[in-house]
Design a protein that fits this description.
By secondary structure, this protein is α/β, with parallel strands linked by helices. It has a single domain, classed as 3-Layer(aba) Sandwich (Rossmann fold). 37% of the residues lie in helices and 17% in strands. The chain is built from five helices and seven strands. Strands 2-1-3-4-5 form a five-stranded parallel sheet, sandwiched between helices. A two-stranded antiparallel ribbon has the order 6-7. A hairpin with a 2-residue loop joins strand 6 and strand 7. The longest helix is centred in the last third of the chain and has 21 residues. The model has no long low-confidence stretch (mean pLDDT 98). The structure holds ligand FNR. This is NAD(P)H-dependent oxidoreductase. It comes from Massilia pinisoli. Pfam families: FMN_red. InterPro entries: Flavoprotein-like_sf, FMN_Rdtase-like_dom, NAD(P)H-dep_reductase.
Length: 183
Amino acid sequence: ATRKIAVLVGSLRKESFTRKLAKSLMLVAPPTLELEIVDISQLPMYNQDDETETPPVTWTEFRGRIREADGVLFCTPEYNRSLPGVLKNAIDVGSRPYGEAAWTGKPCAVVSNSPGALGGFGANHAIRQCLVFLNMPCMQSPEAYIGGVAGKFDGDTLKDEGLKTFLQQFMECFATWVERHAD
Ligand code: FNR
């Protein structure tokens, strides 16, 4: 059986390295995973006052997309040693109404990156803090902190063969992880 994976990208900019990395992960993933980027750019900032009988349609659609996924792959840059607000907002939107979080129980993995040397370690673990509360089994190992990301691409093409091999292994482990926690 194939498993549907929602891919979240924590950067909105056009030439985002995070999005390039996410697309590279999708390309090397085993065929049992059906990966799709779920857009988070149109989600209004979470406001509990809008949690009425008719919440913003973008929230409802996003929650639906997460609910129908078998797993989630978080790809993120690091902003001020933490996760970007846009990704935190998506996590918050998907976590409500209280008791009806779309995330609950979904197996997931986190890939962080940075042009810098630390590979977004702070962002990676800030996300994991949310995942504990959301009760999402998060793959512990392998970890993915992709440093020096600006030098890894030729346009949109991943040119670093070592990184490509690592991403492939990462996605194989993730497929196993999803299978173990599915249903
Ligand atoms: C950054 N950047 C950054 N990098 C890092 O390694 N650690 C950090 O804490 C931060 N903080 C930070 C804050 C803000 C507000 C911005 C805009 C940027 C740099 C960041 O890694 C770089 O801009 C990446 O290219 C962003 O990822 P995308 O957009 O290429 O996916």
